[in-house]
Amino acid sequence: MKKKRILVVDDEEGMRYMCKSALERAGYGVDVSENAQEALELLEKEKDYELVLTDLNLPGRNGLELISEIRKKHPRCKTLLMTGTLLGNNIDKKNCLHKPFLFTQLVSKIKECLSSP
Fold it and tell me: What count of other Cβ atoms lies within 10 Å of the Cβ of residue 1?
């Protein structure tokens, strides 16, 4: 069975690799990116990511802008926003993961996102 692929986008190297490690242990194929531009390039090149997990605060385009681009260009790809910032009422909080989080919470949220229509 083919592993579901996830792209983790965070400008903090430690967070990228902690998420990568936890998700790989849970059986996912994981790539990482440090900014939105690099993530969009990977999405164009690879085209088979099931989900993009992105931080809100990224250099250049932020995570919400990245999610907006993904929804336009890759509508089948799910997205999950991680943030340590309080979010306004216009944000879909069911697709958010608040930092700090346990990696069991991360894996659970990823499974929930991937199983939703």
Answer: 4
Dump pLDDT digits (tens) for 76-97.
999 999 987 766 555 566 788 8
- pTM (two decimals): 0.91
Distance between CA 60 and CA 83 in Å, rounded? 16
Q: Determine the Cα–Cα distance for residues 99 and 102; give it in Å rounded to an integer.
A: 9
Determine the Cα–Cα distance for residues 10 and 55; give it in Å rounded to an integer: 5
Break the chain into its structural domains and give their ranges: 5-115
CATH no. for 5-115:
3.40.50.2300
